[in-house]
Amino acid sequence: MRSLTILTLPLMLLLMVGALIWSLSRVAMDAAVEEKTDPNLPDLFATHGVLMRYDEMGSKRSELIASEVTHIPTQDTMLFTQPKLIQTEPGKPTITVVGVRGKSILKASQVWFYDETTLRRAPFGEQAELIVHGRDIRIDQGTQQAHSDAPVVADMGPHHAEAVGFVADNVAQTLVLKSQVKMTYVPTARIALVGSAPRQ
Amino acid sequence: ETADREKPMNITADNCSLDQKTQQSVCVGNVVVTQGTLVLRADKLTTRQDEKGNQFAQGEGRPVRFKQKLDTGEMLDAESLRFDYDGGKGLMTLIDKAWVKRNQDMVVGDTITYDMNTEYYQAQSKTGGRVNITLMPKKKEASK
């Protein structure tokens, strides 16, 4: 009986050690896998980030610069500190948005600028530069629209407007001021906008 | 005043939409326009600007109210259901149930055109209608 025990003891020991190693590796793997797959935790953190988007023809469509960039897998979410978005589309005025905090999802197809934000649309044709001071602005790259429900102040040459809430459409080149609107038109603005045309 | 047209035009309203391409804006709800001594209240206002920077406006209200101080210092009051303003020519046309009151004188008609350059106004009625003008005689100054 003793010899049988002696014979089987190492085997038993081997089995026990093997079982121990197997279970440890299972636990370790589970832990690692769990850590890697949590999509709500950042998987990238960068300082002084520059993100550029190009269209199919290879021309740059938008550039986003930020002092800090955090990426979270869920919805391909990016969080930005001091973001600056420059949107350039052929044949359209360049739009620059500077903010305090920003977020983008789904390959920056939707961008949010939280807190104080300034949107500038470059002079274009006869139109003077449009400057919009607002906050909590959302930009939809697909529809090329910027929205906000917060107070906003807009200036274009000598014209001035204030409101609560706006929708700016870069394709249709329209600006809807949603409520509590105050506007000032300066009659001979057109000459002022285009430069000093000789006075008749 | 005749100089009002050169002054900035201030507009307040419930909401507005601006079209950059056509330089046209449409404002709706509690619209108040002030330009110099001119004050205009309407429900809806559409404004446009031409290449020279002249302002054009159309509007409607229940009614549209219009008030302006004349160069003589007198106040001119007017009302109508619709109006059309041509800043280039300086003509304000009041349309539908229009009346204009200047001191005690009053003109009532279907359409009244007011020339802001000359401060003259012309009243018309629809066919079959009548224009009604009331002129208050000026009091003679007491003989010395």
Describe the protein's architecture and organization:
The complex is a heterodimer of chains A (200) and B (144). Chain A is an alpha+beta fold and 200 residues long. Chain A folds into 2 domains: 1-36; 44-184, Lipopolysaccharide (LPS) transport protein A like domain (lipopolysaccharide transport protein A fold). Chain A is built from 2 helices and 11 strands, in the order H-E-E-E-E-E-E-E-E-E-E-E-H. Chain A has helices spanning 2-37, 189-194; strands at 44-54, 60-72, 77-81, 84-87, 95-98, 101-105, 110-121, 130-140, 145-156, 159-169, 174-185. Chain B is mainly β and 144 residues long. The termini of chain B are far apart. The model of chain B has no long low-confidence stretch (mean pLDDT 87). Classes of the chains: A alpha+beta (200), B mainly beta (144). The A-B interface holds A 127, 130, 158, 161, 163, 172-192 and B 5-21, 25, 27, 47, 49-55, 87. Strand 11 of chain A pairs antiparallel with strand 2 (15-19) of chain B.
| Unreliable segments of 5+ consecutive residues of chain B | none
Order of helices and strands of chain B: EEEEEEEEEE
* Overall structural domain count of chain A: 2
Largest interface: A-B, 26 and 28 residues
Number of strands of chain A: 11
* Low-confidence spans of chain A: 189-200
Give the overall shape of chain A, derived from the CA principal axes. Answer: elongated
| Average pLDDT level of chain B | 87
Side-by-side strand order of the widest sheet of chain A: 2-3-6-7-5-4
Order of helices and strands of chain A: HEEEEEEEEEEEH
Nearest-integer average pLDDT of chain A: 81
Radius of gyration of chain A: 29 Å
Distance between the termini of chain B: 34 Å
Based on Cα principal axes, name the global outline of chain B: globular
Assign the structural class of chain A, choosing from mainly alpha, mainly beta, alpha/beta, alpha+beta, or little secondary structure.
alpha+beta
**Assembly annotation:** heterodimer
CATH class of the largest domain in chain A: Mainly Beta
User: Percent of residues of chain B in beta strands?
Assistant: over 45%
CATH architecture term of the largest domain in chain A: Sandwich
Pfam family, one (chain A): LptC
InterPro entries (chain A): LipoPS_assembly_LptC-rel, LPS_export_LptC, LptC
Protein name (chain A): LPS export ABC transporter periplasmic protein LptC
Keywords (chain A): Cell inner membrane, Cell membrane, Membrane, Transmembrane, Transmembrane helix
